[in-house]
Design brief:
This protein is an alpha/beta fold. 33% of the residues lie in helices and 25% in strands. Strand 3, helix 3 (66-71) and strand 4 form a beta-alpha-beta unit.
């Protein structure tokens, strides 16, 4: 069963996602799939390319050839694409408003929830969805508290 963790009260989900992607890539333990809307995926792609050479993070979009997908530590996927068999199934990082399609194929799902009211309500809705299906959920605040 997928391990699900919510990280909430994030003042800047975008920046947090970039830092988390870098952490996962440097650890090399599992591939990270970042799910978000098309505009956010494009912005993350640009931000990752704009880093200095020393900070460059290898990544690709989900429509890359299979060989590239297998070798990329970070894969950027539109939330609407879902988790098809071509994508790695290590860790899914969701920046989207809805429950990502195919999340159950991943070993781990990290849900990011910002401080905006709409984002909080979307996060609560996703929490209820997972909880109603019997997933054990963990919660971590941007302030360090865990449950």
């Amino acid at each position: 069963m997928t391990d699900i963790e919510f990280r909430v009260d994030l003042p800047d989900k975008f920046d947090y996602a970039l830092r988390l992607a870098r952490k996962y890539a440097l650890q090399g333990q599992a591939q990270l799939v970042v799910a978000a809307d098309a505009d956010t995926i494009d912005a993350i792609d640009t931000a990752l390319w704009d880093r200095s050479a020393a900070e460059f993070l290898p990544h690709c979009k989900a429509d890359a050839p299979e060989e590239v997908l297998r070798r990329s530590p970070v894969v950027l996927a539109q939330s609407s694409q879902g988790a098809d068999d071509a994508l790695p199934h290590g860790v899914l990082l969701n920046l989207g408003a809805a429950v990502p399609k195919g999340f159950e194929r991943f070993e781990r799902l990290i849900e990011l929830v910002g401080t905006a009211d709409g984002d909080r309500e979307d996060g609560r809705e996703r929490w209820r969805h997972y909880k109603s299906r019997g997933y054990a959920l963990r919660h971590q605040s941007a302030f360090g508290e865990r449950t």
